[in-house]
UniProtKB/TrEMBL annotation:
A motif (GyrA-box) lies at residues 527-533. A type II topoisomerase that negatively supercoils closed circular double-stranded (ds) DNA in an ATP-dependent manner to modulate DNA topology and maintain chromosomes in an underwound state. Negative supercoiling favors strand separation, and DNA replication, transcription, recombination and repair, all of which involve strand separation. Also able to catalyze the interconversion of other topological isomers of dsDNA rings, including catenanes and knotted rings. Type II topoisomerases break and join 2 DNA strands simultaneously in an ATP-dependent manner. This is DNA gyrase subunit A. InterPro entries: GyrA, GyrA/parC_rep, Gyrase/topoIV_suA_C, Topo_IIA-like_dom_sf, Topo_IIA_A/C_ab, Topo_IIA_A_a_sf, Topo_IIA_dom_A, Type_II_DNA_Topoisomerases. It comes from the Bacteria. Transmembrane segments: none annotated. Heterotetramer, composed of two GyrA and two GyrB chains. In the heterotetramer, GyrA contains the active site tyrosine that forms a transient covalent intermediate with DNA, while GyrB binds cofactors and catalyzes ATP hydrolysis.
Amino acid sequence: MENLFNKDSDTQIIDIEDSIKSSYLDYSMSVIIGRALPDARDGLKPVHRRILYAMNDLGVGSRSAYKKSARIVGDVIGKYHPHGDTAVYDALVRMAQSFSMRYPSVDGQGNFGSIDGDGAAAMRYTEARMTILAEELLRDIDKDTVDFVPNYDDSMQEPDVLPSRVPNLLLNGSSGIAVGMATNIPPHSLNELVDGLLHLLDNKEVSLEELMQFIKGPDFPTAGIIYGKKGIIDAYRTGRGRVKIRAKTHIEKRANKDIIVIDELPYQTNKARLIEQIAELVKEKQIEGIAEVRDESDREGIRVVIELKRDAMSEIVLNNLFKSTTMESTFGVIMLAIHNKEPKIFSLIELLNLFLTHRKTVIIRRTIYELQKARARAHILEGLKIALDNIDEVIALIKNSADNNAAREGLVAKFGLSELQANAILDMKLGRLTGLEREKIENELADLLKEIARLDEILKSEALLEDLIREELKEIRAKFDVPRITQIEDDYDDIDVEDLIPNENMVVTITHRGYIKRVPSKQYEKQKRGGKGKLAVTTYDDDFIESFFTANTHDTLMFVTDKGQLYWLKVYKIPEGSRTAKGKAVVNLINLQAEEKIMAIIPTTDFDESKSLCFFTKNGIVKRTNLSEYQNIRSVGVRAINLDENDELVTAIIVERDLIELSQASQDENLSEEASEENLENVGGKMLFAVTKKGMCIKFPLAKVREIGRVSRGVTAIKFKEKNDELVGAVVIENDEQEVLSVSAKGIGKRTNAGEYRLQSRGGKGVICMKLTDKTKELISVVIVDESMDLMALTSSGKMIRVDMHSIRKAGRNTSGVIVVNVENDEVVSIAKCPKQSEEEDIEEDVNLSLE
């Protein structure tokens, strides 16, 4: 201890903090450079490179017999990789797994694990050899193409990098965690990489967008579907990105039940663990509608069967599976690799250029090596040719020499040969003196001189060097011509079941108790005015059809509830049923809250900003909001309108913006709510038309209802004359030539020109829309129609009738109309317009008219 502080002693005083920093830095660099990260040129970590080089040393090529894995691991550990045998064997196993490597570099025989997470058998039981691809990684390594460095004990030499004729880093990808950094490079299609490299050779200043016409994106060994190109573009441009992958599935029908079959899994997904995960979610009732899950996979491929319950919708279950399980995963791309002994994140173009530079270096070094060998051989052949040209003198000189040394010196002195040439002449057999052998030597020399000239040209010409790279790349592509297996979609939602569903017109019905269904509109035959209709739905005794409408299968339905919430659903996701089926509870399709009731359903094809959504409430309130505010709906819905106490939503309609809409916005101060009706004529544009159950209506300019926010209340549309009156319907009028169809509860209806209703100020008391009597009962709704449309009406008992619009008589504003539906003891609850049927259908149905 005394010597510790003695300045004259040999002991060094070291700060422990500095010592720890230095030691940890050395350890970090050892892990980064020597263990965890791949080289940017050959795409291999040291352990993988050493495994392949050891197998090459052992002669375990793709055509040789398999060797015990333990023998290979022993050679790797003993000669090159002084680490545990488990680490080496695990690396060898992964190189042989077709579900881990896009192009395996080890051909394994025996149990090398499975996609279910099963481990490989012990290395004493398995055997391995290189694949053809691995041989391409090692091709020309014996031609001084790469640098060799001492192994861990300086007893042998090992390659610093492999020559690699394939872009292995991108081809098979790589993953690893070093100290303070990590890499995660996805595998790619060899065909696409080669095409991209060839294009890059021809276009040095290529853009990423142009290059991605050839290299579409990652190509995972387990296939699957990549959703969205944004993550791929980010990764290729910056070296970092997030790629979403989904399992590939298809739907089968069996015994009136849907069966979801998983055909392909996201990369690195454990199949057995996925099945356990699904079973656990079903057990905890986090996913509804699944009856059974079983694994039917075999050597032909993956097949996981998810059998659904009878009333379950496959698309809804599938979406829940994607959301809650590893059937959907995210691959975080980090293209980090070692270059010049330093870790760096690369873009796609940088990695491709590095590979091309590496290939140029390899080819130049190989060319120099082959040139030196060719020149050495040509030198010998030139000596032999001189000897053959002077054979008698050469024989005499050798015969008269005392020994080999004297003969060598004599040949060098007399013919100007080198010692190598003189030795070759002395070693030449007498059989080479024949005419045929002389000719062979001359031909070989001539060929060698041509080869030397060719190799010289390659070294002098960049164009010839690139041509050689092109030829090798094309050769590789032809040898490993494997098509892409991972599907790529442009956008995350691009692949949808709607791509597989025909574009059809549907009648969608919803009952008072909340049962919804869709039925092809062609199933409802057209009947004569006054017909009794066909049964449209089977309902419970206390249930009745509350509303219905026609829509396309690809349309979006917006559901607005009594609580002012808005949800949406694609029409094709509504279960299709027969005319008499009661349908499916809508609460199973959208996430309604407790005691929440749907008050309006609005179909739309898009959420364009040029459209507005107008809401009308029972108390006569109107509100208008831009439709684009409702395009991103959460699963719990969004607030659509703030309602007063005791108020309810009656209807909501989509309106197109006027070209002149509120060009008078600056005139709003002058054009007040109490403006005279004469001034209203100056507003122009579309008009809103609202009716009450007591037969009153009001028509006012759309421009008088300005767009407001999503959660606003709205403004007054009409003031009621009678206390028990309420608003029951509303439409948008484009011009006064349009026809308004109004229908009462007892099936009485009429068509009236919109011009017969005078324009008023918003908030007025309105005018008479229909003359009501005991025979008509109350007004139930209005629609805008013309004779190119048909009318469909529903009654509270579930009957529906389809009527030609031209069979409904036109009548004045203050009249009742004609019988549209013969309801007897029933009542009409809803009306809608629908496309007219074809003439052929008209004729057939007129002949076979049925009055049920």
